Amino acid sequence: VMAQEIADIPSDPAFKSGVLPNGMRWYVAVNPNVKGIADFALVQNTGLNNVPGVAPDSIIVRSQRVLAARFTADGASVQKFFSRKGCVPGSEGFAQVRDDATVYRFRKINLLQSASVMDSTLFVIMNMAGASEEVGLQEWYAPADQAIVVSGDVDPDVVAQKLQMLSYMLPASASRTRNEYSWKDSDSLDVKLEPHANPDVAKVTLSWRLKRIPRELMSTAMPAIYGRYMTMGGLVLEERITNRFMEQEIPAISVKSSYSDGAGMSGDESFSVSVTVFPQDLSYAVKVLAASASALDRDGAYASEILKAGRGYADMLYQADHGSNIANGEYVERCVSSFIYNSPLCSIGDIRRFHESRSLPDSTECRLFNSILSASMEGGRNLSLKLACGADGQDAQKFADIFASAWASAEKEAEPGH
Fold first, then answer.
1. Cα 154 to Cα 33: distance, rounded to the nearest angstrom
2. In what order do the strands lie in the sheet with 25-30?
3. What is the chain's Cα-based Rg?
4. Which of 42-46, 75-79, 132-136, 350-354 has the weakest average pLDDT?
5. Strand locations in 62-119, DSSP E?
6. What is the pLDDT of residues 289-306, one digit of tens each?
7. Which tens digits make up the pLDDT trace of 81-105?
8. Is 37 helix (H, G, I), strand (E, B) or coil?
9. Which helix (H) or strand (E) segment is 292 a member of?
10. What whole-number distance in Å separates Cα of residue 112 and Cα of residue 93?
11. Is 208 exposed, middle or buried (0-12, 13-18, 19+ CB in 10 A)?
């Protein structure tokens, strides 16, 4: 409701997008940082776990066959075609098959190699989109289920015009319904023990599974608002946990929080806090982590904590907005996320300016923070506890009991400065 009442965040002017006559989407990100270089991608809304009745292996085999197909005049395969242009595959090769999509990535193509590089590249990618060597799977690759992405030193109008003409090679066809995201609630704590790479330290991570923001709200201001308050919640927890260690004169090597939204992955969102300590202090770390999280969930944060966290979040955005030049690959990932998850095509600077423009009264800011964080933490539901340590002789149930006891008996945190 709150997101629907707030104006959307404007898209980054570096992006242009549209729909071709056959239903395929296109995205172009203008990035002149590297002259004469561009990244290309073909995104297909067909992944390992989102197509009913199709074995994941079939999707993988199809992606490999598409790369081996010969669409060029001299009979070169797709893989050889892009290799000739100096394109180097990523760690997973040219094709990345995810749970909910297949993404072909072709990086650092030299557009100055010849006058026909852009035309031939787009021609090959459009042919890949229409590959029909497996008739039994073709129904899952309608044009409307695919997108072409170009990022680099390009003219978006020229790219759009070329794609418009090429789209007539691939006529429109019916799109099939994919498996939809479903939320599974849990009231039990999942505890996992695993060895730590460094036997001289131990790490405990408390994570919440969070329900995804609905797809129809991903293009609104809601992801930015939710991301702000969840990140601020992590900053509050970091400080509370650090203070408890300092009070007991027990060293905490590091305390870090993290929020993973629904813009770059399938499945649930997540929020986590990790504490790294010396092995002998692991039980205390579990106790402090549980008590701090429980108190924040039950009682909320004080105004002084919330306002300090808000300043910390603003500093994080400012530093990210004034970092190094954005690479073509980052622009491509934003377009992929926009196509698959409907996430907005806005920059960090756009998000920073959006938050700065809101100017909420402190009382409203605090009320929103506590209500959103409490709703997300859900009274200790959907939690997991992962411990990385010398697992020999360790008992997962022991840590589960320590956590449960500390969570249940957590005392209200004293307001900072009192």
1. 11
2. 15-19, 25-30, 146-152, 37-44, 102-110, 95-97
3. 25
4. 132-136
5. 95-97, 102-110
6. 999 999 999 999 999 999
7. 999 888 888 888 999 999 999 999 9
8. strand
9. helix 282-299
10. 24
11. buried
Task: List, in sequence order, every residue forming a beta bridge with 151; answer none if it has no partner.
Answer: 29, 39
CB 281 within 8 A of CB 295: no
- What percentage of the chain reaches a pLDDT higher than 90? 72
Name the nearest CA neighbour of 252 among 204, 208, 292: 204
Asked if 203 and 385 touch (Cβ cutoff 8 Å), the reply is: no
- Do residues 24 and 164 make contact, with C-beta atoms less than 8 angstroms apart? no
95-122 core/surface letters (b: 16 or more CB in 10 A; e: else): bbbbebbbbbbbbbbebeeeeebbeebb
pLDDT score of 393: 62
The residue-averaged pLDDT of 123-150 equals 90
Which residues contact residue 315 at a Cβ distance below 8 angstroms, ignoring those fewer than 6 apart?
none
**DSSP bridge partners of 193:** 387
For residue 256, report the phi and psi dihedrals to the nearest 5 degrees: -135, 140
pLDDT-based confidence at 75, cuts 50/70/90? confident
In angstroms, the CA 123 to CA 126 distance is 5
Q: Which residues contact 405 (CB under 8 A, 6 or more apart)?
A: 287
Residue type present at position 294: S
Q: Token pair of 307, please?
A: 């306002």
Vertex 35 angle, CA 31 and 39, to 5°? 55
In sequence order, what are the beta bridge partners of 277?
202
pLDDT-derived band at 203 (thresholds 50, 70, 90) equals: very high
Torsion of CA 43, 264, 330, 70, to 10 degrees: -20
What type of residue sits at position 23? G
Mean pLDDT of the chain: 91
Task: With beta carbons less than 8 A apart as the criterion, state whether 286 and 385 touch.
Answer: yes
Tokens encoding 208: 């919440």
Degrees to nearest 5, angle at CA 67 with 66 and 69? 65
Q: What is the pLDDT of residue 360?
A: 83
For residue 286, the model assigns a pLDDT of 96
pTM of the model: 0.89
Give the DSSP letter of residue 135.
T
Report the alpha-carbon distance of residue 333 to residue 331 in Å, rounded: 5
Rounded to whole angstroms, the Cα distance separating 199 from 345 reads: 43
Q: How far separated are the first and last CA of the chain, in Å rounded?
A: 37
Q: Looking up tokens 């579990």, which residue turns up?
A: 286
